[in-house]
Amino acid sequence: MEPRFDIFGTETGGKLAKRFAALGQAVHQSSLPVTTAELVNLRASQLNGCGFCLDMHVKEAVAAGEDPLRLHLVAGWRETTVFTEAEQAALAFTEEATVLAREGVSDETWAGVRKHFDDEQVAALVVLVGLINAANRMAVSTGQKGGSYQVGALAAAQ
């Protein structure tokens, strides 16, 4: 199946893509660990069924040195021993902030985030979850498929 629409191939989409990429770059320049950011991107993309973003973030994480075993275990993170307490807090936050039909982010989850991340990192984490959810929704709604992403393509498009 071909993608339904090339949103970034339009003048408006191109302008928005640059601004969207700039937000992502600001998150990656923060003190939020890159590993944590990629785990967050993967978990939200799993929950949203976004093959394009899963493809991208798995490949980028591996290229950055992430252990493939940990990437395979993200969906079942609660039942593993390979994630730090801080990563677990970020993954719990990601799930609750992604699936808002529930109660939203619980006080317990928020307390876990605050325990492990400083104000700058919390700001980056909150924006990151919003960005990956927006990216997932754009990719899924326009029919973007995973499998052909090349490492560094996102950075090259900026």
From TrEMBL:
Q: Does the keyword Oxidoreductase apply?
A: yes
Query: Which Pfam families does UniProt cross-reference here?
Result: CMD (PF02627)
The terms under GO molecular function for this entry are: peroxiredoxin activity
- Alphabetical UniProt keywords: Oxidoreductase, Peroxidase
Task: Please state every residue range assigned to the domain named Carboxymuconolactone decarboxylase-like.
Answer: 16-96
Output the PANTHER family linked to this UniProt entry.
4-CARBOXYMUCONOLACTONE DECARBOXYLASE FAMILY PROTEIN (AFU_ORTHOLOGUE AFUA_6G11590) (PTHR34846), BLL7811 PROTEIN (PTHR34846:SF7)
The name under which this protein is listed is Alkylhydroperoxidase AhpD family core domain-containing protein
